[in-house]
Amino acid sequence: MRIDKDKKLKDILKIVGPGTQLREGLENILRAKTGGLIVLGDTDDVMSIVDGGFKINASYSPAYIYELAKMDGAIILSSDLKTILYANTQLQPSPGTVTFETGTRHRTAQRVAKQTGRITIAISQRRNIITIYKGDTKYVLKDPNEVIARANQAVQTLEKYVAVLEKVVNNLNILEFQDLATVFDVVTAIQRTEMVMRIVEEIERYIIELGNEGRLISMQLNELIKYIEQDGIMLIKDYCSEDSNYSDVYKEIQKLDSQEILDLDCIAKVLGYSGESLVDNIISSRGHRILNKIPRIPSNVIENLIKQFSYLKNVIEASTEELDQVEGIGEARAKAIRSGVRRLKEQVSLNKKI
User: Fold this and answer.
1) Phi, psi of 243 (to 5 degrees)
2) Beta-ladder partners of 189
3) Helices of type H across 129-182
4) Which among 40, 89, 151, 232 could disulfide-bond with 119, CB atoms 3.0 to 4.6 Å apart, if both were Cys?
C-alpha cells in the first residue's frame, strides 16, 4: 500500500549491497586506490559505445575485477553480473549528453548511464568514493559503519515516535468505545501513523544499503512497527468520507510534503472534512480497526457486520440475536464477537494496547 518513492535507488542498492560479490570487488578496487569504471550490462546501447580493449569473457570474481581495474579503461559486465566481458575499453558516449561532473571518469560514467539506462559505477582514485549512476539517478555509496550509525539513530527516533503514537491511539480507542471521537483525535492518529511510516521508509533504505549487515536493524524494525501501517489503513477506512476510496485517501496522505503532514487541517481535507471545526466535530467509527482485533473473525464477516450496522457503536450495542442475523454469523460466532468486543473494551479501559 505504500508508494515506493525510492524504488529505482533501492533496486540499485540491492545489487551493490555488502555481502554481494559485486560489492566485494568494488571494495577491493577502492582499497587499492586504482580507480575504476564499470558498466553493468551488455545491451546493444552499451556495446555501441565500446571501443577497443580486451575481450575477457571470464566468470566474474572479486579478484578478477580487482586485477582488471589496474588498467585504465572501463570494464563491461554481463547483464546478469556473472561474466566479465571486456576490460580496458574506451567508452564513447555522446558528448552532447548533459553532465555536471568534473573528472573524466565520472563525466563518462554519468553520460553512459543517461544514454544507455544501465548502471554505471565510477570508483574515484583521488576521493576514494564509489559513485553509482543510472539514468538521471546519482548516488554515492557510504561506508557501512556510517550507514549503521545513521540507521541506529533513526531507530531511536522511531522508538520515540511509536511511543507517542501509542498514546494517541490508546486515547482514540477510549473515545471510540464511548462514541466521542472528534475529527481532531482521528486526524492526529493518522498524522502520527504517517510520520512513523516515513521514518520506517528511511530505515528500510538503510537496511537495503547495508545488505547482509542490516539483519539486526531489520529485526528491530519489525519488532517496533508490527501492525502500525495496517492499523493506520483501517483508521482511514473507518473515517474517510463515504464518497472516498480509502486506498486513494491513503495515497494522497503519502503525497503530502513534510510541511503539509504537520497541518491537521490539510489531512482532514484529504479525509473529506474541510471547513469544519476539528475539535468540535464528533464522528463515529465504522469499526474496521477495532473489529479486526477480535480473533478468528474473517474479514468478509466484518464487512457484513459493518454493512448491517453501519457504525462500531451499533455493533457494540447489538444483542447476540441481532448479530446472529448477519450473513456468515451463527450463534457461536455472535457470542464470540460480543465477548471479543467486551474484552477489547476492558483492555482499553485499563489503558492497554489492543
Assistant:
1) -90, 10
2) none
3) 144-178
4) 40
- Given a contact cutoff of 8 angstroms between Cβ atoms, the answer to whether 269 and 190 are in contact is no
Which helix (H) or strand (E) is 187 found in, with range?
A: helix 183-210
Answer for the pair 109, 121: CB distance below 8 angstroms, yes or no.
yes
Please check whether residue 46 is in contact with residue 166, taking contact to mean a CB–CB distance below 8 angstroms.
no
Whole-angstrom distance, CA of residue 41 vs CA of residue 120: 9
Q: What is the C-alpha to C-alpha distance for residues 341 and 334, in angstroms, rounded to an integer?
A: 11
As a whole number of angstroms, the distance between CA 56 and CA 277 comes to: 71
* 202 grid coordinates: 528511511
187 with 268: CB under 8 angstroms? yes
pLDDT of 12 reads 94
Number of Cβ within 10 Å of residue 317's Cβ equals 12
Residues paired with residue 83 on neighbouring β-strands, in sequence order:
59
Sort strands 119-123 and 137-140 into parallel, antiparallel or unpaired. Answer: unpaired
CA distances from 153 to 60, 149, 206 (A): 36, 6, 11
Q: Which residues of 333-343 are buried (b: 16+ CB within 10 A; e: fewer)?
A: bbebbbebbee
What is the C-alpha to C-alpha distance for residues 145 and 151, in angstroms, rounded to an integer? 10
Cα 194 to Cα 188: distance, rounded to the nearest angstrom:
10
User: What is the model's pTM?
Assistant: 0.90
Position with higher pLDDT, 284 vs 125: 284
Q: How many C-beta neighbours within 10 Å does residue 121 have?
A: 27
Q: How many CB atoms lie within 10 A of CB 324?
A: 16
The grid coordinates of residue 268 equal: 482532514
Give SS3 for 20.
Answer: coil
CA distance 122 to 129: 8
Residues 151 and 207: beta-carbon distance below 8 Å: yes
The residues, ordered by sequence, that sit 6+ positions from 136 with a Cβ below 8 Å of its Cβ are 114
- Which helix (H) or strand (E) segment is 140 a member of? strand 137-140
> Can you tell me the distance from the alpha carbon of 329 to that of 290, in angstroms, rounded to the nearest whole number?
18
